[in-house]
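Bug #77: duplicate submission created two jobs. Keeping one. Sequence:
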Amino acid sequence: MIRNVNAPTGKTLSYEVPILKLRDYDCDMILEKELYFLIPFYLFNFEDDFAKIEAGDMTVIDSFRTRFSELYDRLKERLEKGQIDVMTHHSIIMLTKKVVAALAQSKAAVKEEAEKIMGGQVIDYETKIIYRQGIEQGIEQVITDILLRGKSPEEVSDLCGYPLEQVQTVANKLNIK
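Kept job's structure:
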């Protein structure tokens, strides 16, 4: 798409602006190219089917479940393989829930089907994992800061009450004996 901008000098400047069309991206392409930011908006690909889903057309509902589930199953697989972290997975799910809430606002069946696929209990569990990881990173940062100020692993363990093994692990990463 070409956009024209009128400059203060009176000249017109033309810029080509690339347009991304979500319908051009299927599940494989989104995951292959790691375009995770598109996942919350993947639901837009099904917008034309919302009325049929609301009417209970099982053929359309099954197709929706299959295609939408495939994306989330493969995303979960990437999480389990360590290709994405829990925070990324959690963020994608939470953003998708917001898009579902806005897009399917008056479509109870669509909302219900999408939420079944994304799950609710999983989000609570992931939130706990994120919280624990944050605590662990904070502890590691405290240990790192104190070690870098010249304290020995034994002193850090005594000062902070962290197990010496944990402090030694951080010290080893920093090549501190």
